Amino acid sequence: MLFAFFLIVSLHVGDTIQYDTSVGACRTSSGGQAGRTFFRDTNCLARCNADVTCTGYVPGSTWCETYYNEPVTGDGRVAFTCKSKGNYTPKAKVTTTPIAKVTTHQKQRLLHTKSKGNYTPKAKVTSHQKQR
Predict the structure, then answer these.
(1) DSSP assignment, residue 73?
(2) 94 DSSP β-pair partners
(3) Among residues 13, 37, 25, 21, which one has the least CA distance to residue 84?
(4) Which residues pair with 11 in a beta bridge?
(5) Any idea of the CA torsion for 19, 25, 31, 37, to the nearest 10 degrees?
(6) Of 60, 61, 71, which Cα lies nearest the Cα of 33?
(7) What is the per-residue pLDDT across 31-90, written as a single tens digit (0 to 9) for each?
(8) Which residue has the higher pLDDT, 9 or 85?
(9) Rounded to whole angstroms, how far apart are CA atoms 76 and 132?
(10) What pairing do the DSSP bridges indicate for beta strands 5-13 and 19-23?
(11) C-alpha distances in angstroms, 79 versus 22, 23, 25, 28, 98?
């Protein structure tokens, strides 16, 4: 029986994340903005906890910002507070989820081609199947 699966890898973080607090908006050591993303809500703690690439966030009263892929610390401006993931190293658990299977028609086509002696596994996934 021939099966083909296409996988999505997702990371689940099961550890408690500790944040260091510093004065100012979050910036990298060179003053960069580390992929800063602005949101018009206050859910950045949850976003940062759920994303292993998030390195910190700035909470506001009706807004927040998240920062990614580079360590950040406050730039000293007293109007803001930078919450940065300390020396946090995620202990990620990798899981896989199948998102597409080879159809019965494709299996029959592959088996038919193989029985002719010129077998070349070329299962195609249509755009309709990729969206499932």
Answers:
(1) E
(2) 11
(3) 21
(4) 94
(5) 80
(6) 71
(7) 999 999 999 999 999 999 999 999 999 999 999 999 999 999 999 999 999 999 976 554
(8) 85
(9) 48
(10) unpaired
(11) 11, 8, 8, 18, 47
User: Model-level pTM?
Assistant: 0.56
Of 35, 84, 76, 31, the closest CA to residue 57 belongs to: 84
Q: Identity (one letter) of the amino acid at 92?
A: A
| Cα–Cα distance measured from residue 29 to residue 27, given in angstroms and rounded to the nearest whole number | 7
Q: How many CB atoms lie within 10 A of CB 55?
A: 22
Residues of the chain above pLDDT 90, percent: 48
What value does the CA radius of gyration of the chain take, rounded to a whole number of Å?
A: 23
**Any alpha helices (H) in the chain, and if so which ranges?**
44-50, 104-115, 127-130
Secondary structure string (H, E, C) spanning 2-36: CCCEEEEEEEEECCCCCEEEEECCEECCCCCCCCC
Structure letter (DSSP) for residue 53: T
Max CA separation in the chain (angstroms) = 75
Place of tokens 């908006």: 25
